[in-house]
Specification:
about 170 residues, two-stranded parallel ribbon, about 45% helix, globular
Length: about 170
């Protein structure tokens, strides 16, 4: 697991994606926590996937779509292979397994774990599509800021907050 923690510190990404309403889904706001690691070395991705499954973390691996692989070949680039962990319980399990071993991404991982634990309690107490609370949005914003150190700032979740149904 120390090897995996080192690879995660170097190549991994803890984060959260979010979608905002569209004309097709006018009331649908979704925040999805995730962990992802992408590499051009397929055997490493297979080993990471096996270690995660062995430790009870639900993960998926992908080798890219055929079109994406062909496009990278045209650009003379090697294909990227990916392992992804999604879902509240899976993220909590991943961080619990690795929290004593990761160093560089520990702060982001622990914030994401905190978000997932809070959402699990809200979802269990209320319902599957429970509204997001102000504390949920604050944690996701902290994660985004930590992930964007040294990167030009993009639109933040706060820009969508007036339309985001938040439970105080």
């Amino acid at each position: 697991m120390w090897w995996l923690a080192g690879v995660i510190d170097g190549e991994g990404n803890f984060g959260a994606s979010y979608s905002v309403p569209s004309p097709k889904t006018p009331k649908k706001h979704v925040i999805r926590p995730y962990f992802q690691i992408g590499m051009t070395h397929k055997e490493s991705i297979d080993e990471i996937y096996a270690l995660l499954i062995k430790n009870g973390v639900v993960a998926t691996k992908s080798y890219g779509t055929r079109a994406a692989v062909q496009k990278r070949v045209l650009w003379n680039a090697r294909p990227v292979f990916t392992v992804r962990v999604c879902g509240l319980e899976s993220i909590v399990r991943l961080v619990d397994v690795l929290k004593d071993k990761i160093v560089c991404k520990k702060d982001v991982a622990l914030l994401l774990r905190k978000y997932c634990k809070q959402r699990i309690s809200v979802v269990k107490a209320n319902r599957r599509n429970a509204p997001y609370r102000r504390v949920d949005v604050d944690i996701i914003e902290q994660i985004r800021k930590l992930n964007q150190r040294g990167i030009k700032q993009h639109k933040t979740l706060r820009d969508f907050t007036p339309r985001l149904p938040i439970m105080e």
